[in-house]
Amino acid sequence: MAGRIRDEDIALVRERTSIVDVISEQVTLKSAGGGNLKGLCPFHEEKSPSFNVTPARNVFFCFGCGVGGDAIGFVQQVDHLTFPEAVERLAAKAGIQLRYLDDGPGSRPARSQQQGLRQRLVAAHVDAAAFYAEQLLTPDGRLAREFLAARGFDRSTAERYGCGFAPDAWDRLTKHLRQKGYTGQELVTAGLAKEARSGSLIDRFRRRLLWPIRDLGGDVIGFGARKLYDDDDGPKYLNTPESPIYKKSHVLYGIDQAKREIAKQGRAVIVEGYTDVMACHLAGVPTAVATCGTAFGTDHIGVLRRLLMDTDAYAGEIIFTFDGDAAGQKAALRAFEDDQRFVAQTFIAVSPDDMDPCELRLARGDAAVRDLIARREPMLAFALRSVLARYDLDTAEGRVAALRATAPLVARIKDRALRPEYTRKLAGDLGMEIETVQRAVGSAGRPGSPPSPVAPSTVDGPQRTVEREALKLALQYPVLAGPMFDAVDGSAYADPVHAAVRAAIGAAGGAGAAVGGVLWLERVRDQCADLAAKALVSELAVEPLRYPGAEPDPRYVAVQLARLQLPAVTRRIAELKSKLQRLNPVDHVDEHLRLFGELVPLEQHARALREQAVGGL
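Request: output the structure for the sequence above.
Response:
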């Protein structure tokens, strides 16, 4: 293979690379005893850490999804690199000069081609960041320096965050990088340059203040650019476009500087802008990060969960800061929907005077920023207050409408111990009897009500246990359970998340067509529409069955599926009997016969299910 890295160099990279250092850039690791470390797997959704690292052997393995390997394999997986690209990245960090095999005349590619695409794009961004930082100090960068100074940031702060200035020229950066050996295609792919109408390349950013955006590992992967001049007809903020290394839904500005404090404090503060991140860090809130040109979403949650060790055992805090205006309230309520996707306790901090953290620091000092975060309010309390404010609670109609709007919020609280407390609080806010509010909350949480895409479980007792057991059989023993499991559709599942997993199993081809193992679980996870269902698949894949023996048998499967179907069949029978009682058989002969014809076989089916359900174990 032309340009293959020498085996001895690959061995040297493995020898000089600490797998703990590499993985710690992406995952918070804690001691698991025996010299091993444990954290949340970055390759699949999970609530309990099953990702294990063994420093003595420089290897990792996830007992949840089965992914494992060495430091090179980890970098390949987490950054979607080829094997040579992963080796090159680790070699660069270890200061190792790699040598490449030459398989014949003309076969060895140039060094710029030997490097992986990711390394070339990152290197181009590093050189661009240095260029922009130099331009900030020139006379042309005066307005950018004044912008920073007016917001309380001196030269040392600008250097700490790598602030720069894109000059008033069409292709200054492009020419600079081309002289360093980067190709035009590399600059376009990186999002640093674009094609002009004439066909020549021009700089993407001009006459703007820039912030380099770094990933968890500290690599520069993009830029955020703010306009400075009134005659600039572009957007206020312009970000790097999507590229092989820049995915805005995964990026959090400031994460490289905040990650260690986030892991240490178990807290992340989400702000809205680059200057807000800088202001918070300087004011003594070092856990602040910001999204880059997009709303806070599921992928951002995944990044933070791994840093927070966000599990039932390691609860963290997410604190959102938003302006107190209507747009800020809308953003906060959208964040509340995301809150239901992860375990961390979620809060919101809103300045009384609608100032963002940067403005607050300028007006009232560092202590005011720290106080803002200290005065955080539970996200749910804020969400309820914001919704109630839309209604006239002095009228009966307004109170009823407000109850209908807020009851689903209380019903979706993931911590069930909090639901009664917030039910009582809501009753007090509305001035209604607590029994009325309790009924509304209970109705909003029952199957049949429109659920949140990630609504938590609202089904208790034996039914929930049976549903979980059936899903575990399909995930863990698809060959055994397959045909019987596939014959029972999703209507038998009362829990909406259980039903979502059942739908995913069907979309993955059904348990009857599976052979089990990691690939089967991955196929099911890929078909899950939301994070709650994905997490449940991982959980059920390793949760022990309630079967008393070592391995389940066909009779156990039959018993569980009978118990699964019986409640739904029983409910349908009750519905049919109720309709028949209300129906006059003389006036509605055909309808009466139709309902009776449905009832008889259903009752026979129910008797068979009861016999099977009680006669097995």
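The longest strand covers residues 220-227.
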